[in-house]
Amino acid sequence: MTEVENIDIDEIKVDSEQPRKTFPEDKIMELAESIKKHGILEPLIIDSKNKIVDGECRLRASKIVGLKKIPVIRLNPEDQIDRWVKQMVVNYHRIAQEPIDQAKILKEIQAKSAQTLHRDKEHKSDYHTKAIIELVEMTGISHQTISNRLSLLEAPEDIQKAVKEKKIKSTYVVEVEKSDDEEHKQELYEKIKKGEIKNRDEIRDEIKYKKLDDRVKEIESLPKPPELIIDEYFEKLSDAVSRLDSLLYMESNIVPALKDSQKHEIIQNFKHLHMKIMKFIENMKIDSVEAL
Known about the structure:
Blueprint (H helix, E strand, L loop, with lengths): L3 E5 L16 H14 L5 E3 L5 E3 L1 H10 L3 E6 L5 H14 L5 H14 L2 H4 L5 H16 L3 H10 L4 H8 L5 H7 L5 H12 L6 H22 L4 H23 L11 H25 L8
Parallel strand pairs: 2-4
Antiparallel strand pairs: 1-4, 2-3
C-alpha cells in the first residue's frame, strides 16, 4: 500500500522540465478556494529528492492558502523519459467530469441544501442567486462556472444529450441559454445542429441583434407622439406642393396652359390649406392623421 506522508511545503521542489508550462491564475485561485474549504484531497506525487512528478497546481494553490505541510506520495521515475511518461499517464488517467454530469450533481447539492433558502420565500431570481452563492461556499468552485453548468440543464433534453455525446459544445449551450426568447433559442440550436454557427461570438451577436430588432419593433408599435405625426404630415403636404408645382410647369397637353399668376395663386391656396390643416391638428390635439 502506498504510504502518504505529510512534509513541509518548503521542502517540495518544482520540476522545470515537466510538460505543463502554463498555470492559469484563475484556475489556481479556484483550486486554492477548494483546498481552503476541503483540504488537499489528492496527495502530490514526488520523487526521493522531493521533486514534483505530479501536483504543481496543488502546490501553488496550497501556498496561496498558506499551508505549512502538504500530503505527498513518493514515486521514483527511473530517468527523465520515465518521469515524462508518468506525468503524461497521470494526466491521461485524470478524466475530467462531463459538464452535464457536473451540472446534475450541483443541482442535487443545491436541492439538498435548499430548505434554508425556501424559508425566506424570496423572489425566484434572488433564490437562484443565493443558491449559487451557497454552492460556491460549499464547493470552492467559481460563481461563473457553477452558473454556466446549471444553465446547461435549462436546455432541451436532446441538446443535453448532444452535449454529452460531444456533438454540441457545452460553451455554445451556455451562450444560447442567455437569451430570454425561447423561440429564438430553438432557432439558434437548429443553426448549431446544422453547423451554421462556428463560434460563441456568432451566438452572442445573434442574441444581441435579436434584442435590438425586438426593441425597434416595440418602439415602432407604440402610438406616435402628436408632434411626430404633425411633422410627418407636414412633410407629406410639402412634398405634394412640390409635385404640384412641377406638374403645373410641365409642358403637357394634359395640363391646360396657365398664366404664371394663375399658377402662383393655386400654389398659394394649396399652402394656405396646408397651414389651416396643421393649425387644426394642433388645436384639436389630434394624435392620428387618419382622424381627419
